[in-house]
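If you are new to this repository, start here. Below is one unmodified record pulled from the training split, so you can see the exact layout before writing a loader.
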Amino acid sequence: MAEIKKYIAVDLGAESGRVMLGAVSAEKLQLEEIHRFSNGPIDDAGSLRWDFERLFSEIKQGIKKAAKHATAQLWGIGIDTWGVDFGLLDADGKLIENPYHYRDSQTNGMMEKAFEQISKREIYENTGIQFMQLNRLYQLFAMRRAYSISLAKAKNLVFMADLFSYFLCGRIFGEYTLASTSQFMDMRTGQWSAHLLSKLALPVQIMPKIVRPGTVVGQLSGRIGMELGCGPIPVIAIGSHDTASAVVAVPALGDNWAYLSSGTWSLMGVELPKAIVDDKTFGYEFTNEGGVENTIRLLKNIMGLWLIQECRRQWQREGTDLSYAQIAEMAAGAEPFADYINVDDSRFLAPGDMPARINEYLTEKGRPPVQDKGQMIRIIMESLAFKYRSVAEALEDATGRQIEVLHIVGGGIQNELLCRFTANCTGRKVVTGPIEATASGNVLMQARATGQIKTLAAAREIVRKSFKLKQYEPQDVPLWAEQYEKSKTKS
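And here is the target side for that same chain:
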Protein backbone atom coordinates (compact mmCIF):
# COMPACT_ATOMS: atom_id res chain seq x y z
CA MET A 1 0.00 0.00 0.00
CA ALA A 2 1.34 3.43 -0.99
CA GLU A 3 2.45 5.67 1.86
CA ILE A 4 0.01 8.44 2.70
CA LYS A 5 1.24 11.64 4.32
CA LYS A 6 -0.95 14.40 5.69
CA TYR A 7 -0.33 18.14 5.53
CA ILE A 8 -2.13 21.32 6.60
CA ALA A 9 -2.63 24.02 3.97
CA VAL A 10 -3.60 27.51 5.08
CA ASP A 11 -4.93 29.37 2.03
CA LEU A 12 -5.74 32.99 2.75
CA GLY A 13 -7.48 34.94 0.01
CA ALA A 14 -8.67 38.51 -0.21
CA GLU A 15 -12.30 37.53 0.44
CA SER A 16 -12.02 34.41 2.60
CA GLY A 17 -9.54 32.07 4.23
CA ARG A 18 -9.58 28.32 4.66
CA VAL A 19 -7.57 25.68 6.45
CA MET A 20 -7.41 22.43 4.49
CA LEU A 21 -6.18 18.99 5.41
CA GLY A 22 -4.40 17.29 2.53
CA ALA A 23 -3.56 13.60 2.18
CA VAL A 24 -0.99 12.69 -0.47
CA SER A 25 -0.06 9.29 -1.86
CA ALA A 26 1.96 8.38 -4.94
CA GLU A 27 -1.11 8.79 -7.18
CA LYS A 28 -3.74 10.74 -5.28
CA LEU A 29 -4.34 14.02 -3.50
CA GLN A 30 -7.34 14.36 -1.24
CA LEU A 31 -8.37 17.67 0.30
CA GLU A 32 -10.76 18.25 3.14
CA GLU A 33 -11.89 21.68 4.24
CA ILE A 34 -11.52 21.94 8.00
CA HIS A 35 -12.13 25.60 8.73
CA ARG A 36 -13.33 28.54 6.63
CA PHE A 37 -13.59 32.19 7.62
CA SER A 38 -14.34 35.54 6.05
CA ASN A 39 -11.70 38.09 5.19
CA GLY A 40 -11.65 41.71 4.12
CA PRO A 41 -10.24 45.10 5.05
CA ILE A 42 -11.09 47.00 8.22
CA ASP A 43 -11.21 50.77 8.58
CA ASP A 44 -8.55 51.94 11.01
CA ALA A 45 -8.67 55.71 11.49
CA GLY A 46 -9.36 56.23 7.80
CA SER A 47 -6.89 53.63 6.53
CA LEU A 48 -7.72 50.23 5.07
CA ARG A 49 -5.91 47.54 7.07
CA TRP A 50 -5.83 43.79 7.59
CA ASP A 51 -7.09 42.62 10.98
CA PHE A 52 -4.00 40.55 11.69
CA GLU A 53 -4.95 39.31 15.17
CA ARG A 54 -8.33 38.04 14.01
CA LEU A 55 -6.88 36.34 10.95
CA PHE A 56 -4.12 34.71 12.98
CA SER A 57 -6.67 33.54 15.53
CA GLU A 58 -8.72 31.95 12.73
CA ILE A 59 -5.60 30.26 11.35
CA LYS A 60 -4.71 28.82 14.76
CA GLN A 61 -8.27 27.61 15.23
CA GLY A 62 -8.10 25.85 11.88
CA ILE A 63 -4.74 24.23 12.62
CA LYS A 64 -6.06 23.00 15.97
CA LYS A 65 -9.10 21.45 14.28
CA ALA A 66 -6.96 19.91 11.53
CA ALA A 67 -4.49 18.39 13.97
CA LYS A 68 -7.31 16.83 15.93
CA HIS A 69 -9.04 15.62 12.76
CA ALA A 70 -5.92 14.14 11.15
CA THR A 71 -5.56 11.20 13.58
CA ALA A 72 -2.07 10.67 12.11
CA GLN A 73 1.30 12.35 11.93
CA LEU A 74 1.26 15.75 10.26
CA TRP A 75 4.23 16.31 8.00
CA GLY A 76 3.91 20.03 7.48
CA ILE A 77 2.05 23.33 7.54
CA GLY A 78 2.21 25.70 4.58
CA ILE A 79 0.68 29.17 4.31
CA ASP A 80 -0.13 31.08 1.14
CA THR A 81 -1.70 34.52 0.71
CA TRP A 82 -2.29 37.17 -1.93
CA GLY A 83 0.89 38.59 -3.42
CA VAL A 84 1.09 42.06 -1.86
CA ASP A 85 1.22 43.75 1.57
CA PHE A 86 3.59 43.27 4.50
CA GLY A 87 3.96 43.65 8.25
CA LEU A 88 6.64 45.52 10.16
CA LEU A 89 8.29 44.02 13.26
CA ASP A 90 10.09 46.00 15.93
CA ALA A 91 13.36 45.07 17.62
CA ASP A 92 11.47 42.75 20.00
CA GLY A 93 9.85 40.89 17.12
CA LYS A 94 6.42 42.38 17.75
CA LEU A 95 4.06 43.54 15.01
CA ILE A 96 4.11 47.33 15.14
CA GLU A 97 0.70 47.91 13.54
CA ASN A 98 -1.91 46.16 11.43
CA PRO A 99 -0.60 45.81 7.85
CA TYR A 100 -2.00 48.15 5.22
CA HIS A 101 -4.49 46.68 2.76
CA TYR A 102 -3.38 46.94 -0.86
CA ARG A 103 -6.52 48.90 -1.79
CA ASP A 104 -5.70 51.66 0.72
CA SER A 105 -5.38 55.11 -0.82
CA GLN A 106 -1.86 55.75 0.54
CA THR A 107 -0.38 54.54 -2.75
CA ASN A 108 -2.40 56.98 -4.89
CA GLY A 109 0.07 58.91 -7.05
CA MET A 110 3.09 57.07 -5.62
CA MET A 111 4.15 55.47 -8.89
CA GLU A 112 4.44 58.89 -10.52
CA LYS A 113 6.40 60.21 -7.53
CA ALA A 114 8.76 57.24 -7.73
CA PHE A 115 9.32 57.80 -11.46
CA GLU A 116 10.63 61.28 -10.60
CA GLN A 117 13.55 59.59 -8.82
CA ILE A 118 14.09 56.56 -11.03
CA SER A 119 12.65 55.97 -14.48
CA LYS A 120 9.89 53.49 -15.12
CA ARG A 121 12.08 51.58 -17.55
CA GLU A 122 14.94 51.38 -15.05
CA ILE A 123 12.60 49.92 -12.44
CA TYR A 124 11.40 47.35 -14.96
CA GLU A 125 14.95 46.45 -16.03
CA ASN A 126 15.77 45.74 -12.38
CA THR A 127 12.63 43.86 -11.43
CA GLY A 128 10.68 42.73 -14.50
CA ILE A 129 7.45 43.41 -12.60
CA GLN A 130 4.18 44.88 -13.87
CA PHE A 131 3.43 48.41 -12.69
CA MET A 132 0.50 48.54 -10.25
CA GLN A 133 0.08 51.11 -7.53
CA LEU A 134 -0.66 48.33 -5.03
CA ASN A 135 2.85 46.85 -5.40
CA ARG A 136 4.81 46.77 -2.18
CA LEU A 137 7.42 49.09 -3.67
CA TYR A 138 4.89 51.92 -3.68
CA GLN A 139 3.44 50.94 -0.31
CA LEU A 140 6.89 51.22 1.24
CA PHE A 141 7.67 54.37 -0.72
CA ALA A 142 4.42 55.96 0.50
CA MET A 143 5.34 55.21 4.11
CA ARG A 144 8.81 56.67 3.65
CA ARG A 145 7.41 59.85 2.08
CA ALA A 146 4.93 60.19 4.96
CA TYR A 147 7.77 59.88 7.52
CA SER A 148 6.04 56.83 8.99
CA ILE A 149 6.88 56.31 12.65
CA SER A 150 6.19 52.60 12.21
CA LEU A 151 8.71 52.37 9.39
CA ALA A 152 11.27 54.22 11.51
CA LYS A 153 10.78 51.65 14.29
CA ALA A 154 10.93 48.65 11.98
CA LYS A 155 13.65 46.06 12.42
CA ASN A 156 12.18 43.61 9.91
CA LEU A 157 9.75 43.73 7.01
CA VAL A 158 7.87 40.45 6.48
CA PHE A 159 5.41 39.57 3.70
CA MET A 160 1.92 38.44 4.63
CA ALA A 161 2.14 34.63 4.32
CA ASP A 162 5.59 34.68 5.89
CA LEU A 163 4.30 36.92 8.68
CA PHE A 164 1.76 34.29 9.73
CA SER A 165 4.47 31.62 9.48
CA TYR A 166 6.74 33.75 11.66
CA PHE A 167 4.11 33.92 14.40
CA LEU A 168 3.80 30.13 14.22
CA CYS A 169 7.48 29.20 14.28
CA GLY A 170 9.48 32.32 15.20
CA ARG A 171 11.59 32.33 12.00
CA ILE A 172 11.85 35.46 9.83
CA PHE A 173 12.24 34.80 6.11
CA GLY A 174 11.09 36.01 2.71
CA GLU A 175 9.74 33.24 0.48
CA TYR A 176 10.98 33.66 -3.11
CA THR A 177 7.65 33.74 -4.98
CA LEU A 178 6.29 36.41 -2.64
CA ALA A 179 9.53 38.36 -2.74
CA SER A 180 9.49 38.36 -6.54
CA THR A 181 6.18 40.26 -6.68
CA SER A 182 7.36 43.08 -4.40
CA GLN A 183 8.99 45.05 -7.25
CA PHE A 184 12.18 45.47 -5.27
CA MET A 185 13.76 42.12 -6.03
CA ASP A 186 16.24 41.79 -8.90
CA MET A 187 14.86 38.97 -11.06
CA ARG A 188 18.30 38.25 -12.51
CA THR A 189 19.88 37.51 -9.13
CA GLY A 190 16.88 36.49 -7.03
CA GLN A 191 18.03 38.94 -4.35
CA TRP A 192 16.98 42.42 -3.26
CA SER A 193 17.84 45.21 -5.68
CA ALA A 194 20.13 47.41 -3.61
CA HIS A 195 20.32 49.83 -6.55
CA LEU A 196 16.56 50.36 -6.73
CA LEU A 197 16.07 50.61 -2.97
CA SER A 198 18.91 53.10 -2.73
CA LYS A 199 17.47 55.27 -5.50
CA LEU A 200 14.19 55.54 -3.59
CA ALA A 201 15.86 55.86 -0.18
CA LEU A 202 14.19 52.67 1.05
CA PRO A 203 15.76 50.59 3.85
CA VAL A 204 17.40 47.44 2.50
CA GLN A 205 18.50 46.39 6.00
CA ILE A 206 14.96 45.46 7.04
CA MET A 207 14.46 43.03 4.15
CA PRO A 208 14.30 39.34 5.11
CA LYS A 209 16.56 36.57 3.87
CA ILE A 210 15.07 35.01 0.73
CA VAL A 211 14.34 31.28 0.83
CA ARG A 212 13.22 29.04 -2.01
CA PRO A 213 9.81 27.34 -2.16
CA GLY A 214 9.96 23.86 -0.67
CA THR A 215 12.15 24.93 2.26
CA VAL A 216 11.42 23.71 5.79
CA VAL A 217 11.88 26.96 7.72
CA GLY A 218 11.12 25.76 11.24
CA GLN A 219 8.49 24.05 13.33
CA LEU A 220 5.61 25.15 15.51
CA SER A 221 6.99 26.88 18.56
CA GLY A 222 6.52 25.17 21.89
CA ARG A 223 4.12 27.86 23.04
CA ILE A 224 1.96 27.58 19.92
CA GLY A 225 2.09 23.80 20.07
CA MET A 226 0.82 23.82 23.65
CA GLU A 227 -1.91 26.34 22.79
CA LEU A 228 -3.12 24.23 19.86
CA GLY A 229 -2.60 20.86 21.50
CA CYS A 230 -0.34 19.49 18.81
CA GLY A 231 3.29 18.49 18.42
CA PRO A 232 6.25 20.11 16.66
CA ILE A 233 4.83 20.19 13.11
CA PRO A 234 7.28 21.48 10.46
CA VAL A 235 6.47 24.88 8.93
CA ILE A 236 7.25 24.86 5.21
CA ALA A 237 7.74 27.77 2.82
CA ILE A 238 5.73 26.58 -0.16
CA GLY A 239 4.91 28.77 -3.15
CA SER A 240 3.65 31.30 -0.63
CA HIS A 241 2.18 33.61 -3.23
CA ASP A 242 -1.22 32.04 -3.83
CA THR A 243 -0.85 32.20 -7.61
CA ALA A 244 2.48 30.36 -7.43
CA SER A 245 0.76 27.58 -5.50
CA ALA A 246 -2.20 27.57 -7.89
CA VAL A 247 0.09 27.14 -10.91
CA VAL A 248 1.68 24.09 -9.27
CA ALA A 249 -1.76 22.46 -9.51
CA VAL A 250 -2.38 23.32 -13.18
CA PRO A 251 -2.95 19.86 -14.73
CA ALA A 252 -1.06 20.70 -17.91
CA LEU A 253 0.98 18.61 -20.32
CA GLY A 254 3.57 19.83 -22.82
CA ASP A 255 4.44 23.47 -23.42
CA ASN A 256 1.64 25.04 -25.48
CA TRP A 257 -0.62 26.09 -22.64
CA ALA A 258 -1.41 29.10 -20.53
CA TYR A 259 -3.05 29.34 -17.14
CA LEU A 260 -5.68 31.61 -15.71
CA SER A 261 -6.02 31.67 -11.94
CA SER A 262 -9.55 32.97 -11.57
CA GLY A 263 -10.81 34.58 -8.39
CA THR A 264 -10.99 38.11 -7.04
CA TRP A 265 -8.08 38.73 -9.39
CA SER A 266 -7.52 37.04 -12.72
CA LEU A 267 -3.88 36.15 -13.23
CA MET A 268 -3.14 34.93 -16.72
CA GLY A 269 0.22 33.78 -17.99
CA VAL A 270 2.67 31.10 -19.07
CA GLU A 271 5.39 29.17 -17.28
CA LEU A 272 8.93 29.78 -18.50
CA PRO A 273 12.47 28.70 -17.57
CA LYS A 274 13.70 32.29 -17.24
CA ALA A 275 12.45 35.86 -17.07
CA ILE A 276 11.84 37.89 -20.22
CA VAL A 277 12.65 41.55 -19.65
CA ASP A 278 12.61 43.33 -22.99
CA ASP A 279 10.75 45.91 -25.05
CA LYS A 280 7.80 43.64 -25.69
CA THR A 281 7.17 42.56 -22.11
CA PHE A 282 7.66 46.17 -20.98
CA GLY A 283 5.22 47.44 -23.59
CA TYR A 284 2.63 44.80 -22.73
CA GLU A 285 3.17 45.50 -19.02
CA PHE A 286 3.79 41.85 -18.27
CA THR A 287 5.16 40.77 -14.94
CA ASN A 288 7.90 38.18 -14.36
CA GLU A 289 7.13 36.45 -11.08
CA GLY A 290 9.07 33.69 -9.43
CA GLY A 291 7.60 30.21 -9.57
CA VAL A 292 8.49 26.93 -7.92
CA GLU A 293 11.24 24.63 -9.17
CA ASN A 294 13.22 27.46 -10.81
CA THR A 295 10.41 28.58 -13.09
CA ILE A 296 9.16 32.05 -13.99
CA ARG A 297 5.51 32.97 -14.35
CA LEU A 298 5.21 35.56 -17.11
CA LEU A 299 1.74 36.93 -16.54
CA LYS A 300 -0.72 39.79 -16.43
CA ASN A 301 -2.78 40.83 -13.41
CA ILE A 302 -6.38 41.52 -14.44
CA MET A 303 -9.05 42.97 -12.16
CA GLY A 304 -11.06 39.72 -12.30
CA LEU A 305 -14.23 38.77 -10.43
CA TRP A 306 -13.70 41.70 -8.06
CA LEU A 307 -16.03 43.78 -10.22
CA ILE A 308 -18.84 41.23 -9.88
CA GLN A 309 -18.17 40.77 -6.17
CA GLU A 310 -18.38 44.52 -5.56
CA CYS A 311 -21.57 44.83 -7.62
CA ARG A 312 -23.13 42.08 -5.53
CA ARG A 313 -22.05 43.75 -2.28
CA GLN A 314 -23.52 47.08 -3.40
CA TRP A 315 -26.83 45.48 -4.31
CA GLN A 316 -26.85 43.77 -0.91
CA ARG A 317 -26.40 47.17 0.74
CA GLU A 318 -29.36 48.40 -1.29
CA GLY A 319 -31.51 45.48 -0.09
CA THR A 320 -31.19 43.01 -2.97
CA ASP A 321 -29.34 39.85 -1.91
CA LEU A 322 -28.41 37.80 -4.97
CA SER A 323 -26.42 34.57 -5.03
CA TYR A 324 -23.66 34.18 -7.60
CA ALA A 325 -25.77 31.52 -9.31
CA GLN A 326 -28.65 34.00 -9.63
CA ILE A 327 -26.32 36.67 -10.95
CA ALA A 328 -24.95 34.29 -13.62
CA GLU A 329 -28.49 33.30 -14.65
CA MET A 330 -29.48 36.95 -15.01
CA ALA A 331 -26.39 37.61 -17.12
CA ALA A 332 -27.11 34.62 -19.36
CA GLY A 333 -30.52 36.10 -20.19
CA ALA A 334 -29.22 39.60 -20.91
CA GLU A 335 -28.53 41.10 -24.33
CA PRO A 336 -25.16 39.98 -25.73
CA PHE A 337 -22.48 42.52 -26.59
CA ALA A 338 -24.49 45.48 -25.32
CA ASP A 339 -21.38 47.39 -24.26
CA TYR A 340 -17.78 47.05 -23.12
CA ILE A 341 -15.60 48.34 -20.28
CA ASN A 342 -11.88 48.32 -19.61
CA VAL A 343 -11.92 46.04 -16.57
CA ASP A 344 -8.53 47.38 -15.46
CA ASP A 345 -9.58 51.03 -15.26
CA SER A 346 -8.08 52.44 -12.05
CA ARG A 347 -11.44 53.69 -10.75
CA PHE A 348 -12.48 50.04 -10.25
CA LEU A 349 -9.62 49.25 -7.84
CA ALA A 350 -11.01 50.51 -4.54
CA PRO A 351 -14.04 49.03 -2.76
CA GLY A 352 -17.32 50.91 -3.08
CA ASP A 353 -20.32 51.42 -5.34
CA MET A 354 -19.11 49.46 -8.37
CA PRO A 355 -22.31 49.78 -10.45
CA ALA A 356 -22.11 53.57 -10.11
CA ARG A 357 -18.44 53.54 -11.13
CA ILE A 358 -19.16 51.39 -14.18
CA ASN A 359 -21.92 53.78 -15.22
CA GLU A 360 -19.58 56.71 -14.63
CA TYR A 361 -17.09 55.03 -16.97
CA LEU A 362 -19.75 54.48 -19.65
CA THR A 363 -21.05 58.02 -19.36
CA GLU A 364 -17.56 59.46 -19.79
CA LYS A 365 -17.25 57.41 -22.98
CA GLY A 366 -20.48 58.94 -24.25
CA ARG A 367 -22.54 55.81 -23.81
CA PRO A 368 -25.75 55.30 -21.81
CA PRO A 369 -25.63 53.98 -18.23
CA VAL A 370 -26.86 50.47 -17.47
CA GLN A 371 -29.65 49.94 -14.96
CA ASP A 372 -30.43 46.25 -15.46
CA LYS A 373 -28.35 44.13 -13.08
CA GLY A 374 -28.08 41.12 -15.39
CA GLN A 375 -27.00 43.38 -18.25
CA MET A 376 -24.27 44.95 -16.14
CA ILE A 377 -22.89 41.55 -15.11
CA ARG A 378 -22.93 40.34 -18.71
CA ILE A 379 -20.98 43.41 -19.79
CA ILE A 380 -18.39 42.64 -17.11
CA MET A 381 -18.12 38.98 -18.14
CA GLU A 382 -17.81 39.72 -21.84
CA SER A 383 -15.27 42.45 -21.12
CA LEU A 384 -13.21 39.98 -19.06
CA ALA A 385 -13.31 37.49 -21.96
CA PHE A 386 -12.12 40.21 -24.35
CA LYS A 387 -9.27 41.03 -21.95
CA TYR A 388 -8.28 37.35 -21.73
CA ARG A 389 -8.04 37.16 -25.53
CA SER A 390 -5.93 40.32 -25.62
CA VAL A 391 -3.53 38.92 -23.03
CA ALA A 392 -3.32 35.52 -24.78
CA GLU A 393 -2.34 37.20 -28.05
CA ALA A 394 0.23 39.37 -26.28
CA LEU A 395 1.73 36.33 -24.52
CA GLU A 396 2.13 34.56 -27.85
CA ASP A 397 3.82 37.62 -29.33
CA ALA A 398 6.16 38.11 -26.37
CA THR A 399 7.22 34.47 -26.08
CA GLY A 400 6.94 33.16 -29.65
CA ARG A 401 4.98 30.27 -28.18
CA GLN A 402 1.56 29.25 -29.47
CA ILE A 403 -1.13 28.81 -26.82
CA GLU A 404 -3.41 25.90 -27.69
CA VAL A 405 -5.04 25.25 -24.31
CA LEU A 406 -6.05 27.64 -21.54
CA HIS A 407 -6.20 26.03 -18.08
CA ILE A 408 -8.48 27.89 -15.68
CA VAL A 409 -8.14 27.06 -12.00
CA GLY A 410 -9.60 28.44 -8.79
CA GLY A 411 -13.03 29.39 -7.56
CA GLY A 412 -13.84 31.31 -10.74
CA ILE A 413 -14.37 28.05 -12.64
CA GLN A 414 -17.74 27.79 -10.92
CA ASN A 415 -18.84 30.65 -13.18
CA GLU A 416 -19.49 28.40 -16.16
CA LEU A 417 -20.88 31.24 -18.27
CA LEU A 418 -17.62 33.14 -18.02
CA CYS A 419 -15.64 29.97 -18.81
CA ARG A 420 -17.75 29.45 -21.92
CA PHE A 421 -17.33 33.09 -22.95
CA THR A 422 -13.57 32.70 -22.49
CA ALA A 423 -13.35 29.67 -24.78
CA ASN A 424 -15.50 31.37 -27.42
CA CYS A 425 -13.61 34.66 -27.32
CA THR A 426 -10.06 33.29 -27.19
CA GLY A 427 -10.81 30.58 -29.76
CA ARG A 428 -8.91 28.09 -27.63
CA LYS A 429 -9.93 25.00 -25.72
CA VAL A 430 -10.50 25.80 -22.07
CA VAL A 431 -9.90 23.18 -19.39
CA THR A 432 -11.17 24.00 -15.90
CA GLY A 433 -10.15 22.53 -12.56
CA PRO A 434 -9.31 22.09 -9.83
CA ILE A 435 -11.35 24.64 -7.87
CA GLU A 436 -9.02 24.42 -4.87
CA ALA A 437 -5.90 24.80 -6.99
CA THR A 438 -4.07 27.00 -4.51
CA ALA A 439 -4.59 24.64 -1.57
CA SER A 440 -3.65 21.71 -3.83
CA GLY A 441 -0.41 23.34 -4.90
CA ASN A 442 0.30 24.30 -1.30
CA VAL A 443 0.00 20.66 -0.17
CA LEU A 444 1.94 19.29 -3.14
CA MET A 445 4.88 21.61 -2.49
CA GLN A 446 4.93 20.44 1.11
CA ALA A 447 5.07 16.87 -0.21
CA ARG A 448 7.93 17.99 -2.47
CA ALA A 449 9.75 19.41 0.58
CA THR A 450 9.47 16.10 2.46
CA GLY A 451 10.71 14.14 -0.56
CA GLN A 452 7.40 12.39 -1.12
CA ILE A 453 7.05 13.98 -4.60
CA LYS A 454 10.17 14.26 -6.72
CA THR A 455 9.25 16.66 -9.56
CA LEU A 456 6.76 19.32 -10.61
CA ALA A 457 5.62 17.04 -13.44
CA ALA A 458 4.86 14.30 -10.90
CA ALA A 459 2.80 16.77 -8.85
CA ARG A 460 0.72 17.68 -11.91
CA GLU A 461 0.19 14.02 -12.74
CA ILE A 462 -1.28 13.57 -9.27
CA VAL A 463 -3.61 16.52 -9.93
CA ARG A 464 -4.83 14.97 -13.19
CA LYS A 465 -5.62 11.73 -11.36
CA SER A 466 -7.27 13.41 -8.39
CA PHE A 467 -9.74 15.95 -9.76
CA LYS A 468 -12.53 16.00 -12.30
CA LEU A 469 -11.75 18.44 -15.10
CA LYS A 470 -14.19 20.06 -17.51
CA GLN A 471 -13.53 21.13 -21.11
CA TYR A 472 -15.08 23.95 -23.11
CA GLU A 473 -14.62 23.91 -26.88
CA PRO A 474 -14.78 27.29 -28.68
CA GLN A 475 -18.14 28.15 -30.28
CA ASP A 476 -19.33 31.11 -32.35
CA VAL A 477 -15.69 32.08 -32.87
CA PRO A 478 -16.26 34.45 -35.88
CA LEU A 479 -18.95 36.37 -33.96
CA TRP A 480 -16.75 36.75 -30.90
CA ALA A 481 -13.78 37.76 -33.06
CA GLU A 482 -15.91 40.48 -34.68
CA GLN A 483 -17.07 41.77 -31.30
CA TYR A 484 -13.53 41.64 -29.93
CA GLU A 485 -12.35 43.93 -32.71
CA LYS A 486 -15.25 46.30 -31.99
CA SER A 487 -14.37 46.34 -28.29
CA LYS A 488 -10.97 47.81 -29.07
CA THR A 489 -12.60 51.00 -30.32
CA LYS A 490 -14.73 51.38 -27.19
CA SER A 491 -12.01 51.42 -24.55
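Two things worth knowing about this chain: The two ends are 58 Å apart (CA to CA). The chain has a mean pLDDT of 96.
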